[in-house]
Amino acid sequence: MVKKRHTRDDMQEVLQILANKLDRRDYAKVTSAMSMLFVGHTFGMSIDGFEFINLAIKTKKNITNKEVKITRQDNVIKLKPK
Length: 82
Known about the structure:
It contains three helices and no strands. It has helices at residues 8-21, 24-38, 50-65. The termini are far apart. 0% of the residues are buried.
């Protein structure tokens, strides 16, 4: 069984997803950070990448926890007597 290697097309697909989701300023920040990681900048994290992976997972969990939750109380209409 041959392992599938990631190709330039895979990276282009990822960049397209980012471009669709982010505005120009945020896209520039993300791609700049990706470029710095590519050339070896560690941002003060471990070289093996595990600290980066943990940071990515932690950030994803924080975003998931901030989802808007609608309660039944939001549908209650308060009536005032005349």
